[in-house]
Amino acid sequence: MFESLSDRLGGVFDALKKRGSLKAGDVDAAMRDIRIALLEADVALPVVKDFIAKVKEEAVGEQVLKSVTPGQQVVKVVHDALVGLLQSDDQDLTLIGEPPHAILMVGLQGSGKTTSTAKIAKRLTEKDRKKVLMASLDVYRPAAQEQLKILGEQTGVATLPIVAGQMPVDIAKRAMNAGRLGGYDVVMLDTAGRLHVDEQLMAEVAAVRDAAKPRETLLVADSMTGQDAVTVAKSFEDRVGLTGIVLTRVDGDARGGAALSMRQVTGKPIKFLGTGEKMDGLEAFRADRVAGRILGMGDVVSLVEKAAETIEAEEAEKIARKMQKGEFDLDDMASQLKQMRKMGGLEGVMGLLPGVGKIKKQMAGANIDPKMMLRQEAIISSMTPQERRNPGVLHASRKRRVAAGSGTSVQDVNKLLKQHQMMAKMMKQVAKMGKKGKMPFGLGGPGGADLSQLMGGGQMPGLGGPGQGLGGGQLPPGMGGFPPGFPKK
Amino acid sequence: MALTWFQKIKQGLTKTSSRLADGVAGIFTGKRRLDDDALEELEEVLISADLGPAMAARMVAELAKNKFDKEISDLEVREAFAAHVTSVLEPVAKPIAVDRTRKPHIVLVVGVNGSGKTTTIGKLAKHYSEQGLTVMLAAGDTFRAAAVEQLKVWGERTNCPVIAKETGADAASLAFDAIQQAKEQNVDLLLIDTAGRLHNKTGLMQELQKVVRVIGKQDPDAPHDTIMVLDATTGQNAVQQVSVFGDMVKVTGLVLTKLDGTAKGGVMVALADRFGLPVHCIGVGEQADDLRAFTANDFARGLMGLE
Q1: Which of the following CATH numbers is that of domain A3-86: 3.40.190.10, 3.20.20.70, 1.10.10.10, 1.20.120.140?
Q2: Is B274 annotated as a binding residue?
Q3: In 3D, which of A420, A412, A381, A413 has the Cα closest to residue A398?
């Protein structure tokens, strides 16, 4: 639904290229587009203004103007500047000195403190081999303490026994004491959600801080937060003092501009990204990933991860082996269709890809039936194993049977077969080219290739044309196989 | 010790509004001619209240239509904006219409994680029991640790029975059982909680569709209300959330929570403009009676920092 920055800037600079000279107004237009893109991504206004002032000069420098694709060049400048701002040297937890180290978790209601507490505790236990104790200081929300206790049981991390009626500061003291006596390395203090304007509760968390003397005080913030992120982060920084930020719900589709706002206004590093409700959904912060999302350039890392999550490794290996031989039968096609569907269908995948904003819009305009893939799967399921292995045997009467079995028409069956043929042909070509080495894992190989085939397979009006569809020249080379260096898992 | 609700909402509203009011005041010191620069600055101020670029552009264009190139004061600008916002929100300010003849009137509560679904159910339970309705709660968040216990506490506080299964049970079957019990006990209102889920998780959204389907088997008209709970601090992603939840489970109304903070829920204006879904009420705190009716004029004037 958002226009990506590349799309916007593309428009500005297209007009510019025709004229061949740059006017002051053009620069301002480009800067305005960047500003709107950042605001759409929920970056706070003062932060946006600062940022624009910083990148303005660089973004319209000589290099950009000489470039064939000034729009892309500006995006790169902006992207790099964002990465620069988001990145920090001390993204790891600093747990030095005499244990136990207290980690204080603070934030608004519903930001994900308890879940993040348990995730970090699990990570410290398993990855860093620390002995961790968790304590819930949330005496306000019903059953909050039970929640942490249950998460402790699930993750195998010890929790401080609940004493009914005890107040937060006393619980903190008891936790630190238990930490010392029990020989714990880390004591995690999960506090109640509180509004930064709630004087009483802010004073309380400050008192907890004084009692526990935390090595780390992490602000847990939802990546969906809007313009208010600045106010929230600043208040917590002023009243409690932060050492870092945990950005949660990064597995959602929010652009996450709040991350930049909070990083800027507090000067504190973002240390972790929360990705999902499962206890292992925690990652070290990666600036490039968040920068790409803020700019609406897609989140290729997420795509690769999503692919790795949904595509069963064995299945992918099998297909890769077959592809090396240039084989691609209807079973393979069915399994790829299924994988696409699991990843949220074409639209889901497209949303994560960089530079496809325009195509996405065309898709919406072209009335593409989201059930198409489902129907194609049905067609293939209605075939016999022999037909799937060798589509050549499918003559008129067999096609009629398949059509009837899948509730489609013979034309639909024909379309699918044609599409399969094209894909198979391409696989053969790929196999020839790829003799050197093994196919890249999962999407990089088969998925990337047949996505373009699915799109350009003649089923989608207005998409297959040269320079328009995915199969055309519009996409970055990353489509056919993501650039090297992406994590394999 | 605690603030009264009136102080609370006022405190909250003043805090938020101050950003917008200060912003506008910063542009218009005294009177100023409404030129392009002024309009652009105004647009940014609106965006910084989460109204979103599209809505902000429209509001500024509307203002320019009548006032462009004329002298105008800060107060006039805010009055004009408030009037515009009111006109957008007026049609959507509708309370939940509980039909007591349905026995039970079934309300399904949905939303992303941490938006305040369970707390809102607790508040609704209090509100409707005080109005003399018999209310039953269904602990449909069978996923998150201790979510069931959380709703049970709300049940005790409001004296409403809670239908629950153990964590990990099937949410749809729980909803089914709850409706049966509600029918047997002749309950007026059944509030069904659900687990928070991000709208882009296809599997979880399908699970929610299943809950709706199963509810429909007990009563073809049910759920009579599917209420989506939104956190006022949410930014432009709220548009996407409402769009997807709306498509998948036919959301019939919204509740905006956490308005006692500094976020004023400006995104609500964009939502009302785009989806026209009723806004039933707003949450202004964690206590059982921190629930208010949504009134367009108050919200708009609060947003613009007007008394």
Answers
A1: 1.20.120.140
A2: no
A3: A413
